[in-house]
Design a protein that fits this description.
25 helices; single chain; 4-stranded parallel β-sheet; alpha/beta
Length: about 600
């Protein structure tokens, strides 16, 4: 039975979303009621749609009225996580023919890597690439001749973008098809250690590159539990994968069979009598299941933006209070880097998504009565796939095989979830507490205010932050003008090693920013996504060097300790004339000016569409 707290949050989301969800479902049902594209469209339209199909496929889809699957792919061979998709369309088409159906690549969507663009101009396109991907998904499906869809994507903005786009075609049965993580290379802990030494100038560039190349060494997703792997965990919790598909490495024998199973699965749910379109599968209970699973695994902070946007695409309204209230009751069951030493391969070996979902479901933290892409419902996702003599089988995962990585709901790592809401006179923000040692979860120190991450790094290299820490015992670094409307809300992950050096020297250190951190946000306490952002007159624009700031993850406080009368009268600062221009022009950033102007707040999903 679902716990009362989970039910209460779900019910308030349902009530808040009643009008928008009703309108969404009405639009879905109108689209669903139309005839098949090949029967409904004009002859010239149909001829164009299927002109390139092999003759036997053309006959199937037009004359025999066979189901036609649209394939959306994020393939490119620059991203390790997406390179395995190279051959997936041919596998899918082959399996579709075996099942008496057809399949076409409906379109490709762009896929960029935050690991490549981290700290570079391209990072200021990253967040909005999600909405570009959603639009590309819509363009691809707009040909409107598909009876079902398969979404091939893995990484940070790609899965949320595909999901948002798919939900705008919510009448289609849809299954997501991942490619899996790369095998384990250099440990994440060792990689972080070498990065910190590099910040201090203690290793050469060649040594640093050798370390990074050992960590990122082949095809597949990066092995830490960042945004990409959090995506895959949430899709399992939402019932949108073939069960257990998330963390099977590329090249394993079971990997191709799981891709073929995705074809069989989407055709089964497209069957006329039992159609389960994605817009009906993704309801408020499904969204809450994703939120709970994110909290229980200490997943990426980026999803407090992305899943707000995903929910909005299905007519469902969620906010950070919902995440916070769930986090107060959901136990932390996983320790995966940066929340622990293990990588996702060790997480998978310990029991993986199947174990986590089984524990959450049996303890009442998930809605078990949801629709999924499997007729058995969510219980199907509490088992893990294996190859047997007769093909795929799914096995129970009754116990954790490594209790340093996964624990039962009765003996969690923490009784509360991995993410917290902070609020106060500096606005509303989120913090990933699961990776922050308890001794560092409360910081009060003088602020040092920066208008860019480059300025912070320059101050560190000049010894200014170390000097302040030596004088005062700590520093709260504030980096503003980093929100969606300012410069596209880049990740500031390159600041983590810098601030970690100061923390390791025994100082109280924290970061406060209206930008994002990576899904790999680590041990330094960081109040991120501060809303409203400085660009629109948010309180960060009032802060000055030397103001005392309190960040307390235990009490939920984010405060400038300035007398209230003075705070109310203090002027809102403006950035230096070229501060924003330097970060909004060049390298294609001009093309995203309309998105910056249109963007909603981080808590509203930073959506550029209404």
């Amino acid at each position: 039975m679902t716990t009362s707290q989970i039910l209460a949050v779900t019910e308030r989301i349902r009530q808040r979303s009643a009008a928008t969800r009703h309108a969404y479902l009405a639009q879905l049902h109108d689209a669903q009621a139309r005839g098949r594209g090949a029967d409904r469209m004009g002859c010239a339209n149909v001829a164009h749609a299927f002109a390139a199909l092999p003759h036997q496929d053309k006959f199937k889809v037009v004359a025999e009225k066979a189901p036609n699957i649209g394939i959306l792919t994020a393939y490119n061979d620059m991203l390790s996580a997406h390179a395995p998709f190279r051959h997936y369309p041919e596998v899918i088409k082959d399996e579709a023919r075996r099942c008496g159906a057809t399949a076409q690549v409906a379109g490709g969507v762009p896929a960029m890597c935050d690991g490549i663009t981290q700290g570079e101009p391209g990072m200021e396109l990253s967040l909005f690439s999600r909405d570009v991907i959603a639009m590309a998904t819509a363009v691809s499906l707009s040909h409107d001749v598909f009876d079902a869809a398969l979404m091939l994507g893995v990484c940070d903005k790609i899965v949320p973008g595909l999901l948002i786009g798919a939900l705008h075609f919510g009448h289609l049965p849809t299954v997501f098809v991942p490619a899996g993580p790369m095998t384990t290379g250099l440990s994440n802990k060792e990689k972080a250690r070498i990065r910190q030494r590099a910040v201090q100038g203690l290793v050469t560039r060649d040594e640093l590159l050798a370390s990074e190349s050992q960590a990122y060494h082949g095809e597949g997703t990066c092995t830490f539990y960042g945004t990409a792997n959090s995506n895959q965990m949430l899709l399992e919790a939402m019932g949108l994968h073939v069960p257990g598909t998330a963390f099977v490495n590329p090249g394993e024998a079971v990997r191709e069979e799981l891709t073929r199973e995705a074809v069989r699965t989407v055709l089964n749910i497209a069957h006329a009598g039992q159609c389960r379109p994605i817009g009906e599968v993704v309801d408020e209970r499904c969204i809450v299941n994703a939120m709970v699973t994110l909290l229980a695994t200490g997943g990426s902070t980026n999803h407090l933006i992305h899943w707000v946007a995903v929910a909005r695409a299905a007519g469902i309204q969620i906010d950070w209070d919902d995440f916070s209230d769930l986090s107060d009751h959901v136990p932390l069951l996983a320790r995966v880097y940066p929340n622990g030493a293990a990588d996702v391969n060790q997480f998978q070996q310990a029991g993986g998504p199947a174990y986590v979902l089984r524990e959450l479901l049996s303890a009442g933290y998930l809605h078990g009565d949801v629709m999924t892409v499997r007729p058995e419902g969510l219980v199907a996702f509490t088992r893990t796939p294996v190859m047997a003599a007769q093909g795929l089988e799914w096995q129970e995962v009754p116990v954790s095989l490594d209790d340093t990585v996964l624990r039962p709901a009765t003996a969690p790592f923490s009784p509360t979830g991995g993410l917290k809401l902070l609020k106060g006179n500096l606005g509303r923000a989120v913090i990933k507490v699961s990776a922050v040692p308890e001794a560092h979860q409360s910081v009060e120190a003088s602020a040092r205010v920066f208008d860019s991450q480059e300025a912070l790094q320059t101050a560190f290299q000049a010894g200014e932050l170390t000097s302040q820490c030596e004088r005062e015992g700590g520093v709260v670094c504030v980096v503003r003008w980093q929100g969606p409307q300012a410069n596209g809300m880049p990740e500031l992950h390159k600041l983590t090693p810098t601030l970690a050096v100061l923390q390791d020297q025994g100082y109280k250190v924290a970061l406060v920013t209206d930008g994002r951190m990576s899904g790999a946000s680590g041990k330094v306490p960081a109040a991120i996504h501060v809303s409203p952002e400085a660009k629109v007159g948010g309180p960060l624009a009032k802060l000055r060097d030397g103001d005392r700031v309190r960040l307390d993850a235990r009490t939920g406080d984010l405060l400038a300790l300035v007398p209230e009368p003075e705070w109310q009268l203090r002027a809102v600062a403006s950035p230096e004339p070229d501060t924003l221009q330097r970060h909004t022009r060049g390298m294609g950033r001009e093309l995203f000016a309309g998105m910056r102007r249109q963007a909603l707040t981080a808590e509203e999903g930073a959506c550029t569409w209404l």
